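pasting for the record
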Amino acid sequence: MAATLPVKPLEHESHLSETEPRWFAIRTRFKSEKLAYKQLLSRQIDAYLPIRHLIRRYGRKKREVDLPLINNFVFVKIVKKDYLTVLQTEYVNGFLKLGHNLLSIPEEQISLIRRLLGENVDVEVIENVGLEKGDWVEVTMGPLLGMRGRLVNVKGKEKVLVELINSGYTLEISIDSQLLRKVEGAI
C-alpha cells in the first residue's frame, strides 16, 4: 500500500493591506483607460491615470490630444476591502500580477511619474530591454535633480534611461548633456 503525502497549498504573495492603502496597476480594455479611470473615481477609488499632452499634425491642422502614458493601464491606491470593487468596475480587466503574486508599486515610482509629467519633460515609454552598456549618470540641475539612470545614446542631446524597478517599463528622457554627471556603480 502506497503512502500519500500531504499536499501543501501553493502560497501566493499579496501586498494588499487591511489598513494601509497601496498602489497597484490594473489592466483596462483596449483604449478604455480614461473610461476605466472615470468609473473608478465614481466608485470612490483613489485612481491615477498618467496622461501625455501631445500636439498631432493632420495635414495643415494641429490638434492637441491627451494620451495615456502607458497603454491599457491605470493605477489604483487601495486597501483589501476595495479589491473586489476595482475588479467589478466596468472597463477593468484585472490587476497586473507577477505570476500569481499581487505586488504593490512603491509610492516613489508613482511620484516619479507625476513629477516627470508635471514638468513638461519629453517622456516616451519603452519596454525594459535589459541594458548592459553605458555609464550611470545623475541629473545635477532642473526639475529632475537627483534622478539617476543609464546613458544610452548621444545625439546632440543625451538620451537617459531611468528604470522604474518592478514595473517592467523604462522611461526614456531627452536631456541636455550639461545637466548630467557620471556616477559610479549601479543605482
